[in-house]
Amino acid sequence: MTEAVALSDTRRLRADRARQMADVLRRQVLQGAFPARVLPAEARLVEEFGASRNTVRDALDLLRAEGLVERCPGVGTLVVSEKYAHGLERLLGLAETLHEHGTVSNEVRTTGLITPPREVSARLRTPAGEPVVYVERLRRLNGVPLSLDLTYLVRDLGEALLAEDLANNDVFVLLERLSGQRLGLAEMTLEAVNADPHSAAVLEAPRGAALMMAERLTHLADGRPVDLEYIRFRGDRITMRGTLRRPDPLA
Fold first, then answer.
1. Burial 77-113 (b: 16+ CB within 10 A, else e)
2. Where is the HTH gntR-type domain (predicted)?
């Protein structure tokens, strides 16, 4: 068994302390905690975190490598990027979620009927070989690429949806209008993936950059699955946020 190292132990690596400090600062940056988007001076961070100046610099370097801050000689450390919070507790489209931050627009790259893989048919509960509607969109917030969405829709709703304004509407809003009922729930998984060359080019991200991949199967209120999406979010522009409650063991 590896012996634990006390926090006060000088053997504790500077890199460990820098990572610990960067985690706290990252959260503050994302919450807009610093007025005028300027981080406190190094001397103040040394005092606040009880760390050496080199550790503070290492922590700031970690945030700089993530594209969140820039260190400007004679000015200080500036916040240069912004992430947007995407809630995990409510079933909302991207434009509904981010309306406070600006305008979401959709570049529709591909649409049409396809014969889907068996896995897609099974998840949408359609007979194998039955065509579904495929929609591929690049989604931007205030003109900045945010996500690449690959969407499979059941045929009856999907074909009607293609006649709608996909450039300026969330698919969720259109599905509810066309089906005449509310959406019910969605099953979603999240994982980190690296940007493949095509995704990187479309999202204007470095090749191999970290992306947040969401796979989401959405059902109507009556339980019918109608919308299967594979969404690649730019990892440097969005953060997932939610409140988790521990279940009552007596319930």
1. bebeeebbbbeeeebbbbbebbeeeeebebeeeebee
2. 15-82
pLDDT of residue 18: 93
Question: How does DSSP classify residue 40?
Answer: P
The whole-angstrom separation of Cα 71 and Cα 217 is 42
Q: Which residue type occupies 37?
A: R
Which amino acid would we find at residue 18? A
The stretch 230-238 carries a mean pLDDT of: 92
Q: Which of 59, 79, 99 is the last residue of a domain?
A: 79
Domain co-membership, 136 together with 237? yes
Print the domain residue range for 65. Answer: 1-79
Query: Residue 129, SS3?
Result: coil
| pTM for the whole structure | 0.83
The structure tokens 């039955």 sit at 130
Same domain, 181 and 135: yes
Query: Strand pairing of 132-141 and 210-220?
Result: unpaired
CA distance 237 to 15: 25
Pairing of strands 104-114, 132-141: antiparallel
